[in-house]
Specification:
Distance between the termini: 65 Å
Strand content: under 5%
Shape: elongated
Structural class: mainly alpha
Number of strands: 0
Largest sheet: none
Mean pLDDT: 78
Length: 56
């Protein structure tokens, strides 16, 4: 015999979540930010890497 069907509102609970995400852990806080290259640095980097040249 099948159990009775439940509505979605019955499964979620009555209180809405107070926060969307948990506070960051120390490991996440230690992650380094990405370095943003200037136009000159980017040009020099791409010139030194022939495998990264745009395809014509």
């Amino acid at each position: 015999m099948k159990p009775p069907t439940k509505r979605l509102s019955e499964l979620q609970g009555s209180e809405p979540p107070s926060r969307l995400f948990a506070p960051p852990t120390p490991r996440v806080s230690r992650l380094k930010k990405a370095k943003v290259l200037t136009a000159a640095e980017r040009t020099a980097f791409l010139a030194s890497r022939p495998d990264l040249k745009p395809k014509a």
